[in-house]
Amino acid sequence: MDSLLLRSYAQQNKYAESYEKREATTLSKEEEDEACLVAMAIATGNAAFKVFKAVIELGVLDIMKNARLSTYMSATEIASHLPTTNLDAASMLERMLCHLAGYSLLAYSRRTLLDGQVERLYGLTRVTKHLTNYRDGLSFAPLFILVQDKVFGEG
Questions:
Q1: Tens-digit pLDDT profile for residues 126-136
Q2: Measured between alpha carbons, how far is 92 from 87 in angstroms, rounded to an integer?
Q3: Measured between alpha carbons, how far is 19 from 82 in angstroms, rounded to an integer?
Q4: CB atoms within 10 A of CB 115
Q5: Rounded to an integer, what is the distance from CA 75 to the centroid of its chain?
Q6: What residues form DSSP beta bridges with 122?
Q7: Which residues are within 8 A (CB) of 152 and not within 5 positions of it... i.e. 6 or more apart?
Q8: What is the C-alpha to C-alpha distance for residues 37 and 32, in angstroms, rounded to an integer?
């Protein structure tokens, strides 16, 4: 996971150079979103592991794998499969998924809805597929949960 942070710092340097060269111009919406995700990743450091642990414990990755509606799903579509009555579940999940997409732990795309609004879509990556019941019930998710456990970390 340290390589994710190194990639994040490399992206930060890329954006810093790009920004210096184009300081008189404005970034596109996609460039601004991507830069924001990198900044958030750097600012939060270890938070990605905690968010990722919550996503695994909620079963989000398995929902994404098993839904088979499409390769990508919106937070609203995923939240509809969660056993919750929390009306804010989709928006909370959106923030979590966006955070993980900033670390390239989830694939990210967009689609324009009929009313003109843009909706973010998330999909599994080669890495996250191994944290679902990927092959014959084999998953690295229990190992990830164990390593992230407070008792395991302090022991």
A1: 888 778 876 66
A2: 10
A3: 41
A4: 5
A5: 11
A6: 73, 108
A7: 146
A8: 9
Judge whether 65 and 129 are in contact, CB under 8 Å: yes
Q: Check if the beta carbon of residue 123 is closer than 8 Å to that of residue 73.
A: yes
CA–CA distance, 111 with 117 (Å, rounded to integer): 8
User: If we measure between CA atoms, which residue out of 122, 100, 118, 96 comes closest to residue 109?
Assistant: 122
pLDDT in tens, 131-154: 887 666 778 888 878 877 766 656
CA distance 151 to 116: 48
Residues of the chain with pLDDT under 70: 1-25, 27, 37-46, 68-70, 134-136, 150-155
CA atoms within 13 A on the CB side of 121: 13
Q: Which of 94, 121, 44, 69 is nearest to 36 (CA)?
A: 44
Report how far apart, in Å, the C-alpha atoms of 118 and of each of 25, 68, 148 are. Answer: 24, 22, 34
Q: Please, which residues have CB within 8 angstroms of residue 49's CB and are 6 or more apart in sequence? A: 1, 148
What contacts 75, CB < 8 A, 6 or more positions away? 90, 91, 93, 94, 97, 120, 122
